[in-house]
């Protein structure tokens, strides 16, 4: 296994060859550049390099192009001659075509194995970010999680959280005394946001069996790292869901993995494509969380690489921790663009041979301005670099090829069927049913207890004198039954069926007839 990943070069015109040292690959990185400048190819050759070095990779396939990693390219490809020419220019002498071990994942379960987590594992902070809740609404979500922990109510899927919110609404007055104001309007707003999330496909994300992180950190029989590809073309229709899922996954890696210090190579490399979605309108607490994870997760052996159009999309505190840089061309049409270009150039260690700012503006497709960490983690001098050609297929594989890979995968069958075990929804539903049954039973007992007293009441008001002959017509009978005595009896019967009536029977009526 090599100690570095070959990136590219270019001979005297461009400078020295560039390689990414595996020892410093967990110091994170940035791949930036305007649309169409070659970020996807850079991402592809990095995934290939890490896989060959025995490092598992997780990346999202936003456009569907990266599925080609699973298939070897061939001399029949229209760019074959260009690839071979570039390999010769940059000194890539052992360039060959090859396929790589790929596992496909998909939140919707259409283009890959289903990937899920539970509501409890997502946590109140990320869930509130996903639902775009206000501070007051986020407070109620925190109450829900606290109650779930205290009362043994597992929050596994969305219906668990929805049922718990209903219960909170029904007991809002009592809960407000302990946790502060619990507004029915806020609960209603959260429920509406959950409905929107369901319509976006969020139901597929929450449930069991939940993803086991070990399944993302596998190697194949040849010792190559498995490339985990998340199908994100459809998922990008719900950018909040996409960004929150990736951030949850990153947070889980941070929480679960043990400290390993500075390993010779990463245990996993995590690529966060369309990184601007993570930080757009993100609350300060969430940005602080990302900064904390980025700062500390490298000691867990995980490298994080952000892919975005402009370095300005990433907050400065996080940008400063991204040691390995791949900067493709930036456009500078407006004053704002020129300012951002100048700021991007200032983050590199200068090369006296050329202007970094001009180089970033002028590099062509498949070229980049690069800077890799060197000995002792010192940033290398910036270089103009021709990115090496990929060994795997450039572009997506067919649906039939993807289906065959899924069928042969080690993960086939493990996550396909949804497991719906007893959780908050079932527990709360059973409690409600038991309470209703108890109430019905108590009402039946109360009604049974009222019958002797009612008969005694009716006997006490009966008139024993001479009967007056009356018509037996329906109208006459109706008037008789609706007389004063009938009305009193109806009221008493109705009252005696309830709990209040039970008290009357045991009290007033018992005392009234006790002296007879």
Low-confidence stretches: 471-489, 491-516
* Beta-strand content estimate: 5-15%
* Count of helix runs: 18
Q: Biggest β-sheet, characterized?
A: 12 strands, mixed
CATH topology tier name of the largest domain? Rossmann fold
User: What is the CA-CA span between the terminal residues?
Assistant: 105 Å
Q: Report the CATH superfamily of the largest domain.
A: P-loop containing nucleotide triphosphate hydrolases
CATH-derived architecture of the largest domain = 3-Layer(aba) Sandwich
Question: What portion of residues is helical?
Answer: 40-55%
Average pLDDT, rounded to a whole number, is: 86
Number of domains: 3
Taking all Cα atoms into account, the compactness measure Rg is 35 Å
Name the shape in a single word. Answer: elongated
Structural class designation: alpha/beta
The strand line-up of the biggest sheet is 2-1-12-11-10-3-9-8-4-7-5-6
Highest CATH level, the class of the largest domain: Alpha Beta
Order of helix and strand elements from N to C terminus: EEEHEHEEHHHHHEHEHHEHEHHEEHHHHH
What is the β-strand count?
Answer: 12
């Amino acid at each position: 296994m090599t100690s570095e990943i070959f990136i590219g070069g270019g001979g005297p015109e461009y400078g020295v060859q560039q390689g990414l040292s595996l020892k410093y690959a967990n110091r994170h990185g940035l791949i930036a550049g305007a649309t169409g400048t070659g970020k996807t190819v850079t991402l592809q050759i990095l995934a290939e390099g890490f896989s060959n070095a025995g490092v598992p990779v997780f990346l999202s396939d936003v456009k569907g192009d990266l599925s080609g990693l699973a298939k070897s390219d061939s001399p029949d490809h229209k760019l074959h001659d260009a690839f071979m020419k570039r390999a010769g220019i940059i000194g890539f002498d052992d360039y060959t075509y090859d396929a790589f071990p790929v596992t496909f994942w998909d939140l919707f379960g259409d283009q890959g194995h289903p990937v899920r987590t539970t509501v409890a594992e997502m946590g109140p902070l990320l869930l509130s970010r996903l639902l775009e809740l206000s501070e007051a609404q986020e407070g109620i979500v925190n109450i829900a999680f606290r109650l779930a922990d205290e009362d043994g109510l597992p929050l596994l899927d969305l219906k668990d959280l929805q049922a718990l919110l209903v219960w909170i609404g029904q007991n809002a007055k009592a809960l407000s005394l302990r946790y502060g104001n619990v507004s029915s309007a806020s609960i209603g707003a959260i429920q509406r946001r959950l409905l929107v999330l369901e319509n976006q496909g969020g139901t597929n994300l929450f449930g069991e069996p939940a993803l086991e992180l070990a399944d993302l950190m596998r190697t194949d029989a040849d010792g190559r790292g498995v490339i985990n590809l998340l199908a994100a073309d459809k998922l990008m229709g719900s950018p909040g869901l996409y960004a929150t899922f990736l951030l949850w996954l990153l947070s889980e890696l941070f929480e679960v993995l043990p400290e390993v210090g500075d390993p010779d190579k990463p245990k996993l490399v995590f690529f966060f494509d369309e990184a601007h979605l993570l930080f757009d309108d993100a609350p300060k607490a969430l940005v602080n969380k990302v900064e904390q994870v980025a700062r500390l997760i490298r000691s867990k052996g995980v490298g994080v690489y952000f892919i975005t159009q402009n370095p300005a999309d990433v907050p400065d505190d996080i940008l400063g921790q991204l040691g390995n840089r791949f900067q493709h061309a930036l456009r500078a049409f407006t004053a704002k663009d020129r300012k951002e270009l100048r700021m991007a150039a200032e983050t590199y260690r200068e090369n006296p041979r050329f202007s970094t700012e001009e180089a970033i503006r002028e590099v062509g497709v498949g070229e980049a301005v690069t800077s890799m960490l060197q000995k002792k983690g010192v940033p290398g001098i910036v270089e103009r670099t021709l990115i090496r050609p990929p060994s795997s297929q450039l572009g997506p594989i067919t649906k039939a090829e993807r289906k065959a890979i899924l069928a042969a995968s080690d993960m086939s069958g493990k996550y396909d069927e949804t497991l719906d075990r007893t959780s908050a929804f079932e527990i709360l539903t059973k409690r409600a049913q038991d309470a209703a049954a108890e109430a019905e039973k108590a009402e039946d007992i109360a009604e049974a207890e009222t019958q002797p007293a009612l008969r005694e009441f009716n006997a006490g008001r009966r008139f024993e004198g001479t009967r007056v002959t009356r018509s037996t017509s329906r109208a006459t009978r109706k008037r008789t039954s609706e007389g004063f005595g009938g009305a009193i009896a109806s009221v008493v019967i109705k009252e005696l069926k309830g709990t209040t009536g039970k008290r009357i029977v045991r009290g007033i009526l018992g005392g009234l007839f006790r002296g007879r």
